[in-house]
């Protein structure tokens, strides 16, 4: 196997002209920074959770790039071209990664809450009354769909018009993709609710296959790409995260996020992200294992074993 790319948390290997293999490492990244600490069992939980969702959405007629699991933390997928020059993409291009990330939000949380507080997003844009006081954790009146860049050094939010310009998507394909996201999330909502979770928001990536059919790729529905809250705690006014947001909150607590934001806003040298303390690493590892079990309904075996290529999907 030839190593093609080392991402923030995944390594990508070339199997042949048509297939790749993803290795899910135990690395973790937040705010586009790789944390200099590894999280035990994280790679396996993300890999197996992703495979779980790929098999589920294929059963509802949505195409994916997933082929099978080759081990607990390795996944074989169909290969598409990564085109970094937007000018080389048009409405006839096939078999390529759409250079966007698509986010759909169902509750007020994370960066959405920050933007509401700063007045960047108005209540009416979210389906609320014009002067309504919006609180963290409020359920949105309607799904809030947005998109960012995918292949740039730091992701940036895009309008629909700008997204269409750089992606090669037609209006009709954009609408089809949006409907796919909503259909997938409807399945995610119903599945995790059975296990006492609320699906708060999530991001997804798509590509076109050789015949320019849309397919969902990379990973989704995991504790890295999505945000989940404990349903019973939510009813009590608590927001117990089963997602990477737990780590983001830690760096906000020690004021690292404020320093990083200031540096980016003023175009200064960005501060190095510090390591996680041992007790936080242990808690985060436990969180990833718990998220795997509650998202998929499967028991995680820390001892490790062979994972069958064909997963039983519940």
Question: How would you characterize the overall build of this protein?
Answer:
The chain is of the alpha+beta class. The chain has one domain: D-amino Acid Aminotransferase, Chain A, domain 1. It contains eight helices and 14 strands. The strands form three sheets. Strands 8, 9, 10, 11, 12, 13 and 14 form a seven-stranded antiparallel sheet that branches. The chain is globular, with a radius of gyration of 19 Å. Residues about 305-314 have low confidence and may be disordered.
Question: Which helices and strands occur, and which strands form pairs?
Answer:
Blueprint: E1 2-6, E2 10-14, E3 19-24, E4 29-30, E5 33-34, H1 42-59, E6 66-71, E7 74-78, E8 96-97, E9 100-107, H2 110-117, E10 139-149, E11 157-158, H3 160-167, H4 171-193, E12 197-208, E13 214-217, E14 226-230, H5 231-235, H6 245-253, H7 256-265, H8 278-296
Antiparallel strand pairs: 1-2, 2-3, 3-7, 4-5, 6-7, 8-12, 9-10, 9-12, 10-11, 12-13, 12-14
Helix pairs in contact: 1-8
Primary descriptors:
314 residues, alpha+beta, seven-stranded antiparallel sheet, 14 strands
- Give the total of domains: 1
Number of strands: 14
CATH topology, by name, is D-amino Acid Aminotransferase, Chain A, domain 1
Can you tell me the CATH class? Alpha Beta
Give me a quick take on this structure.
With 314 residues, the protein is an alpha+beta fold. It is 32% helix and 24% strand. Strands 8, 9, 10, 11, 12, 13 and 14 form a 7-stranded antiparallel beta sheet that branches. Strands 1-2-3-7-6 form a 5-stranded antiparallel beta sheet, with helices on one face.
């Amino acid at each position: 196997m030839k190593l093609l790319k080392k991402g923030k948390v995944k390594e990508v290997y070339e199997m042949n002209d048509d297939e790749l293999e993803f290795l899910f490492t135990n690395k973790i990244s937040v705010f586009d920074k790789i944390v200099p600490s590894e999280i035990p069992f994280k790679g396996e939980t993300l890999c197996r959770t992703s495979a779980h969702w790929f098999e589920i959405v294929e059963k509802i007629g949505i195409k994916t790039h997933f082929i099978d699991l080759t081990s607990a933390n390795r996944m074989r997928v169909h290969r598409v071209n990564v085109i970094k020059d937007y000018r080389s993409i048009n409405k006839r291009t096939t078999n390529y990664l759409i250079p966007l990330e698509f986010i759909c939000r169902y509750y007020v949380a994370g960066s959405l809450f920050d933007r509401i507080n700063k007045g960047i997003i108005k209540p009416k844009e979210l389906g609320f009354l014009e002067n309504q006081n919006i609180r963290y954790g409020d359920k949105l009146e309607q799904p809030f769909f947005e998109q960012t860049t995918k292949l740039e050094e730091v992701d940036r939010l895009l309008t629909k018009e700008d997204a269409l310009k750089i992606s090669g998507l037609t209006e009709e394909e954009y609408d089809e993709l949006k409907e796919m996201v909503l259909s997938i999330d409807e399945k995610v909502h119903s599945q995790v609710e059975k296990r006492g979770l609320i699906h708060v928001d999530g991001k997804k990536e798509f590509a076109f296959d050789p015949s320019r059919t849309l397919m969902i790729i990379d990973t989704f529905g995991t504790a890295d790409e999505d945000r989940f809250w404990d349903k019973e705690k939510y009813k009590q006014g608590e927001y117990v995260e089963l997602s990477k947001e737990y780590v983001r909150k830690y760096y906000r607590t020690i004021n690292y996020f404020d320093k990083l934001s200031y540096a980016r806003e003023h175009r200064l040298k960005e501060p190095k992200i510090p390591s996680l303390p041992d007790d936080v690493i242990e808690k985060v590892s436990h969180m990833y294992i718990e998220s795997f079990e509650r998202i998929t309904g499967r028991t995680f075996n820390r001892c490790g074993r062979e994972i069958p290529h064909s997963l039983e999907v519940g």
